[in-house]
C-alpha cells in the first residue's frame, strides 16, 4: 500500500515537473514542432529566445510575410554574401553580420531557433546555423522538419510581423570552423583531418577530393516523416562509412550548403570538431586542374 502511494506521489511529481519545465529541447541543436509550440507559450520567450525564419536572398521575405511561425523574424542567409568564380556564397564580414542581426533585435545572448520552408527544413537553416557557429554561437537550434512539419502538425501561423528593439550582436570569427583550398590540399597530404563529402553517392563515386569519405545529404532524412533520421540510425550511417567522430572532420559538397547540414548531423552525433570547406567541389575541381 505504502509503496503504491509512493509510486503515485512520484508519478504526480513527474507530471508537475514536466508541466513546469516546458523548455524541452530534443537536444541543444534540435527541437520538434511540438516542443517549439510549447516554448512559444513561455512568458520569458521574447526576453530569452528568438525564432528565425531564413532563406536564400531577400525575396524569401515575401513567403515569410504570407504566413510564418508566430514571433519569427526573417533573416537572409545570404546577407553580405556574393558569388565569385569559385564560390556561390562568400562568408559575410563579421561586423556586417553582427550589425544586421542586432538591427533585427537579435542579441548574442538570445537562444536562437532557426527554421526554413525547404522540403526537410535543412537548407538555408543549416547554412545560417553554420554561419552563426562560425561567428561564435555554438548552441543554435534547428526546428526538425522545418515549416513543413510545423504545418503538418497544424500549429498556428501568422502574417503579423513581430518587431524587436535593436540589440547588440557581437560576431566573432572562429577560423577553426572553416577550411580554405590550400588547407584542404594540405589535409590530403597529411591525412590529419578527415574529409567528408555530402554529395550523392553516384556523384561521389564518379570523382571526389582524394581521401574523402561519403555521407550523402539525401540519406539523412526519413522520407516518410520528413524529419531527420533518428540519432541511432544516423550514427550507424556515419560509423559504417568509417568516420571517427573523435577526429577533426571537414565537410564539403558542391557549393557549401549541404556541407552545413552534414556538419549539423556530425555535431548532433557528438563529433569533436567539424569544419566546412566553403569552396567545396566547385572550387576544388577547378583549382586542382590548374
Ligand atoms: C560586406 O560588408 C563589408 C563591411 O561592411 C563591406 O565592405 C562589403 O562590401 C560587404 N559585402 C557585400 C557582398 O555586401
Ligand atoms: C572561403 O571563405 C574565406 C573567408 O571568407 C575566403 O577567404 C575564401 O576566399 C573563401 N573561399 C572561396 C572559394 O571563396
Ligand atoms: C558567442 C555567443 O553568441 N554565444 C551565445 C550563443 O547562444 C547562447 C544561448 O544558447 C548564449 O547564451 C550565448 O551568449
Care to give the gist of this entry?
Helix content is 38%, strand content 13%. The chain is of the alpha/beta class.
Query: Would you count the extended β strands for me?
Result: 10
Shape: globular
Element-by-element helix/strand order? HEHHEHEHEHEHEHEHEHEHEH
Helix count, per DSSP?
12
Q: Any low-confidence stretches, pLDDT <50, length ≥5?
A: 12-24
CATH superfamily of the largest domain: Rhodanese-like domain
User: Would you tell me the structural class of the helices and strands?
Assistant: alpha/beta
Can you walk through the features of this model?
By secondary structure, this protein is of the alpha/beta class. It has two domains: 134 residues, 3-Layer(aba) Sandwich (Oxidized Rhodanese, domain 1); 113 residues, Oxidized Rhodanese, domain 1 (3-Layer(aba) Sandwich). Helices cover 38% and strands 13% of the residues. The strands form two sheets. A five-stranded parallel β-sheet has the order 1-5-4-2-3, with helices on both faces. The relative contact order is 0.13. The chain binds 2-acetamido-2-deoxy-beta-D-glucopyranose (NAG) (3 copies). Keywords: Repeat, Signal, Transferase.
Amino acid at each position: 500500500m505504502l509503496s503504491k502511494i509512493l509510486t503515485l506521489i512520484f508519478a504526480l511529481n513527474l507530471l508537475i515537473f514536466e508541466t513546469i519545465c516546458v523548455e524541452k529541447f530534443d537536444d541543444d541543436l534540435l527541437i520538434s514542432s511540438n516542443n517549439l509550440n510549447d516554448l512559444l507559450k513561455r512568458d520569458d520567450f521574447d526576453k530569452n529566445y528568438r525564432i528565425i525564419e531564413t532563406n536564400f536572398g531577400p525575396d524569401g521575405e515575401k513567403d515569410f510575410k504570407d504566413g510564418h511561425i508566430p514571433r519569427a523574424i526573417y533573416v537572409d542567409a545570404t546577407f553580405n554574401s556574393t558569388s565569385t568564380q569559385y564560390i556561390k556564397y562568400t562568408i559575410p564580414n563579421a561586423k556586417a553580420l553582427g550589425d544586421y542581426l542586432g538591427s533585427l533585435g537579435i542579441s548574442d545572448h538570445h537562444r536562437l531557433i532557426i527554421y526554413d520552408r525547404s522540403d526537410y527544413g535543412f537548407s538555408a537553416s543549416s547554412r545560417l546555423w553554420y554561419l552563426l557557429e562560425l561567428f561564435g554561437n555554438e548552441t543554435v537550434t534547428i526546428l526538425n522538419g522545418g515549416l513543413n512539419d510545423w504545418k503538418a502538425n497544424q500549429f498556428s501561423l501568422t502574417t503579423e510581423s513581430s518587431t524587436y528593439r535593436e540589440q547588440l550582436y557581437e560576431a566573432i570569427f572562429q577560423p577553426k570552423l572553416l577550411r580554405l583550398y590550400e588547407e584542404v590540399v594540405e589535409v590530403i597530404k597529411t591525412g590529419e583531418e578527415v574529409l567528408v563529402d555530402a554529395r550523392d553517392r553516384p556523384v561521389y563515386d564518379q570523382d571526389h577530393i582524394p581521401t574523402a569519405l561519403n555521407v550523402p545529404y539525401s540519406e539523412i532524412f526519413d522520407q516518410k516523416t520528413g524529419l531527420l533520421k533518428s540519432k541511432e540510425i544516423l550514427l550507424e550511417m556515419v560509423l559504417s562509412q568509417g568516420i571517427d567522430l573523435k577526429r577533426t572532420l571537414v565537410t564539403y559538397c558542391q557549393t557549401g550548403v549541404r556541407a552545413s547540414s552534414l556538419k549539423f548531423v556530425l555535431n548532433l552525433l557528438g563529433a569533436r570538431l567539424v569544419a566546412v570547406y566553403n569552396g567545396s567541389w566547385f572550387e576544388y575541381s577547378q583549382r586542382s586542374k590548374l
